[in-house]
Every structure is written in C-alpha cells, then in structure tokens.
Amino acid sequence: MNIKVDQTNLKKLLGVPDRQLTIPPYQRPYAWESEQIDELWHDITDTLDSSHFMGSVVLCSPDEQRPEVIDGQQRLTSIVLLLALIRDQYQALKPELVGRVQMFLENSYAAPDMRFKFRSGNSNLRVFTDFVLHAPDSPSRRNWASVAELDSHELNRNRNLIDNRERLAGYLTKHLELAHNPVQELECLEHKIMTGLQFVVIDVPDIANAFIIFETLNDRGLALSAGDLLKNHLLAAAAKVNESVETLAEDWDTIINNLEGGDITRFLRHYLLTSYAKVQKDDVFTLFKKELTSHGIKKLIKDLKQMSRFYGQFVKPELVSNAGVREVYQNLNTLRATMCYSALLAASPVLKADQLRDFARLCEVLTFRYSTICSKDSKELERVYHNAAKALATRGEEGLNDAIQTLQAASPTSEEFRIAFQHQTMGRHYIVNYIFRGLENYLEPEEKTLQNTQRVHIEHIMPQTLSSEWRDELGDDLEQHELYVNRWGNLTLLGGKLNISASNRVFKEKIDLYKGSKIKLTRKLPKHAAWGIKQIEQRQKALAKVADYVWKLH
C-alpha cells in the first residue's frame, strides 16, 4: 500500500496551486455542535504563541488535483469558516489584506467547479460557497442576513453550519473589542491558523486503502464509533466490487435518519443480537464484518434499512400507527426498557399488528418483573430475548409460540415478585409514575385517569419532614421513619395543587384532600383511621398482590 504521511499546516494544505480539497458526496453533512466549536476557538486563542496539534487528516488522492477528505471534514470546515470570518473583518478594517487570505480560499482563473480550494459536501455546498467562500466584494457573495430566507429543507441541512458561523463570529467580535490593536490581533489569529495549527496528513491512492486507515486509527484508540467504522468498511467493500459508493452512502444516511436520533451503535448491537447470543459493544464492528462477508452488501443494507425503521418506532412511539402497539412502546420508553429491542426487531417484520402488540406487552411485563422489581441477572435476560428473537428471525410467525414460551418461562414466580415488590423504595420517579399509572388504570379501566403522569406529583403520605404532630403520632416507631418514608406503600399520586396543600400535614388533616382526588388509589386511603409503619407495610403488601396480577405474563 503506497501511503504518504506528512506533518503539515493549513498554509501548505491550501497553498497548492489549482488543487481542491473535496468532501466526497458519501460523507455526512457538517455536524459539529457548539461544544466542538468552543473547544476549537479556545485551542487557537489559548495557544497563540505556540503550535497546536489538530490531529490527522486522511486524504484519498486517485486524482491529485482533487484529493478527497476521508477523515477531517468537520475540523477543516470549521477552520475555513473562521478563516473566512477573519477575511471579512479585514474588509472592514484593512481591505488590502483581504486578498492575502482569499488566495488560500480561491484558485485564480480556475474552472467553475475548481474555483475554491475547499469544496464542502453536497448538503452544505451552496450555503458554504455563496455565503462563506466568495470574497466580500464578489458579486456572487450573498449577504449573510439573507441566510434566513433559505427554504426550510436547506436551513435544516445547514443548521449546524449557520449556528457555528454565528458562534465563531461572536467570539471573534468580542476578541477584537478587547484588543488594543484589532488589525494586529487579526493578523496574529490569521498567522496562528495558517501556520500554527499542525496536522498529520495521511494520503492514500484509493478509497479501499483509505478505509483501512480508519480501522488502524480505531485500533490505536482514536474516537471512531462502531457506526463510523461500519460505514467506512461498507464503503470500502463497495469500492472493491465496483458498487456505487455514493448510493451506498445515501442508503447509510437513510438508516441514520430512520433511527430518529437513536444511537447507531446500540441499534447495530440489538440487530446483531437477533443472530448472536452474546454481543458486547466492542464486538459490533467485528461481527458486522462477518455479516457482510456472509450476506453481501446489498442484502445487508436492505435489511438494515428495514430494521432501522422499526427501531425508530421504538425511539419515537408516536410514529406507530397502531394505537395498541404505540401504547406499549410508550410504556417501554417510560421504563427505559431497551434490552427487549432485539426480540422486537425480529418480531416487527413478521407479526401482524395485534400479535406485535401482545408480544411487545410480554416484553414490557417480563422486563418489569425481571429487572425493575426482582433485579435479576441482566445478562441472562438478554440471552432470553436473544432466544425469542432467534425463534422469530429464523421461523417467522411460526416461531411466535416458541418465543412467547421462552419469555414466559423466564418470568419470576408470583411469590418472588410479591416478596421483592413488598420491599421496594421510591428510587427513580419514572418507575414510581409507571407503577402507579399501571395500578390506577387497572383499578379504573374505563376512566384511565392516568394515561400520563405529567400533571400529578408523588405524595409521601407520611411526609419526608416530620412535624411535631407526626412525631407524636409515630411514637415508638419514630426511629423507623427513614426506613419507611420512601417505601411504595407510603406513596401515592396527587394533582399539583392538592400535593402542595397536603404538604406535611398530619394524616387526619389529609383525608379530605385524598377524598377529593380523582385517583382511585388515593381515594382509598381515607379507609385508614391512622397512618404509620403498620399501615405502610399492609398497603405495600396489598399493592404487590394487585401488581402481580396487572403485570402477569398471561
């Protein structure tokens, strides 16, 4: 493999006559967030008197006049953005220096498609060229204020670019306001950017070799995710068999969009768990290379596109058209229950809506009983979901009964569940809200008062802070207050205003408030003449019995 490795700076990178650094069409759009921009600005301004290493840039140069930037797009785009802002400041403060910067942004007398020394990706090309790269006095340069007039689609694609340009402009303006000599400070920044930022450029002759570099960098601990590596490996494989790299890159972007913000590596791991019994995060890339070899590019990408749509529905249940399935997915979201996604991925393409709803409900119930209440071994539960997924993935709808039996067999017994439930304490609010909503909707199936719990608050019947009256009422049990105050038997739900009114009143004074609640669980509390440790234990035991029925794998 003929690889060139050089240490260089931006002056040398952009100083080659009639050369254009090109972001290839399969690269994702510019995506740096404000955090990375802040870090870049401080890296530059905090080291003005010394050099600063910016990392590696991987170039692929089958055409030496148009080397493709395989790795380094985000850094180079951001740095060029800042350099163009410095040039624009020169236009206002010392116009004769504009050309010094512009000569590193523009190829004089070049053909239109080679005019600029840095060509952004297609998604950002028009905005980056028209609003950034053109010289300030060029008739083709568009006024920055008019960027807001772009159509919504182009605005969305360029949101990070627009926001980061404005963020850098703000930093630069404040920096110059504090400077004794703004022009001298601009020249200092320009010099630092052009000569003080150091890069290692790795230049390879073809795309397949370029992606091998990605794997090498990852082996050495640089921050490339399994998703990045998989994409690059797929593109390299496509290049070797003369598949369209551009089409494959578009398909990959579709997969990312289908996930609705879900983590690509987590999706890939759950996808693999439909086939493999054990998949650690670090195994994802290796196993996908194996899948690619077994199934080929086209089949694998087709499957990923389909599965990513289903996964996006787990992330955003509102996308699900079937009301029953949507409700269960919302419950899974509330529980933060992701371990069952492997089984749901396998089920989604082969089951009818009602079957999928019931199967998803089994996953919800098993996760709640097994993990949330009984705190059993999560690795074993993942194996259970893999076995269910495998039955559905290999046999389709015919494997449903085996998948159901697999889940049912793993469920804790009623005795295990009730004992564990009786000793639970508050923990995370979303768990308490989920439990009490489930119990309430079982007790009031027609009303379903608690379709969501956003408008209600968790009420401690025996309050967290005891008044003197409460201390008197507890008597000899006072020392057990801390042990029982957060027990589920001591919790209920109240509307916001009622919750404030109840506060830390003694139990007899709370009874009228509880009677006025729309929540049946709360309205049942006044049957108690008093409230203390005994009543908390009794109520939690009764709730455990109801919960065992509500969350039962029928």
From TrEMBL:
According to UniProt, the name of this protein is DUF262 domain-containing protein
The UniProt entry, under InterPro entries, shows: GmrSD_C, GmrSD_N
Q: Which residues form the GmrSD restriction endonucleases C-terminal domain?
A: 415-546
Q: Where is the GmrSD restriction endonucleases N-terminal domain?
A: 11-235
Q: Which residues form the signal peptide?
A: none
Pfam families, per database record: GmrSD_C (PF07510), GmrSD_N (PF03235)
